[in-house]
Hints:
Layout: E1 2-9, H1 13-30, E2 35-40, H2 44-50, H3 56-65, E3 67-72, H4 86-96, E4 100-106, E5 122-128, E6 136-144, E7 147-153, H5 158-174, E8 178-183, H6 189-202, E9 209-214, H7 215-224, E10 231-234, H8 236-250, E11 259-261, E12 266-268, H9 287-299, H10 304-319, H11 335-349
Helix pairs in contact: 1-9, 1-11, 5-6, 7-8, 9-10, 10-11
Bound molecules: 3-isopropylmalic acid and manganese (II) ion.
3-isopropylmalic acid binds near residues 74, 86 and 89.
Amino acid sequence: MRKILVLEGDGIGPEIISCAVKIIELIKNKFHLNIELEFDYIGGACIDKYGVPIRKETIQKAKKYGIVLLGAVGGYKWDKLPIRPEQGLLTLRKEMGVFANLRPIHSFPVYTGPLKNTSQIDILFLRELTSGIYFGKPKKTKIVNNQKIAIDTMKYSEKEIERVVDMAFKFSQKRRKFLVSVDKANVLESSKLWREVVNRKSKEYPDVKVEHHLVDSFAMNLILKPQYFDVVVTENLFGDVLTDEAAVLVGSLGLLPSASLSFNRGLYEPIHGSAPDLAGKNIANPIGTILSVALMFKYSFNKENIHDLIYNGVFKTMEEGILTFDLSPNKYYSTTEFTEKIIDNIIKLS
Ligand code: IPM
Ligand code: MN
């Protein structure tokens, strides 16, 4: 029996997670899988209930079960508190050791965004997730000469770079054998080391072509020629920024899933936030979370057939012109109606 820890979080978190749970139940029954779900708290919801953004017990369970499905954290309500809801997520990622955040960005059957060059995109981002400027010490605000000075530290060890880069090479081998590493090696020490490690690693993977791109020009080329890229590996903050940018290429932040992996654990969450403005209206797009479930079956259960089935169900639904508010504000299906349509299609396809 495998247990999945489910953390709904804040804002639209509970709504999109309840859609994802329906998909898990469907798959569980269809394929007779021995899976059990256990719910717990994270983020603002956890601060409200327990005074902390995540509890030690929850982290223990996350480590023990090794599979976590998460909605989103954060919201205006907790903006002014000394501890932020986001800290719960960052602690969970760090404690689970899920250093590689996979963010697949590919064209969907429907594109209603503002860009022109958006077909046939298929990029796999690997964002380093447990180090860099998010976690580097010192990290503080102090007073010097009567004014506040705020410090963040971008720090990487060779080992931290090596393990995510190694995973990126392995994914490249299974795809177009073309790896782009994004850094700012013309300015940052941590990027110089990053580049050095990538070059060293590349000797172990002679079949993979490697290019180094500086983050500023990469940000531009990502919009100009997205079809050029295949696997992209980068550090934590660059990856955070670039994958929100990449979301515009495929239509909506609401569409995109992610899998954060260590060698034996997986944390699955959509790449979007808690969208407090959409919360409670039954209009959020559940696709990012449903596809995160697909990634969970692929990476934590080794069931690529289930991954493909969920993807096909989502694609078929979009092909039928059934869309959510973010993609079609004038004629849309509610979050729950849309999920029922996906369920119907998964049943038809299986
Ligand atoms: C993301 C989010 C998080 C991050 C926040 C909520 C801490 O933006 O998953 O991309 O910055 O990693
Ligand atoms: Mn982000």
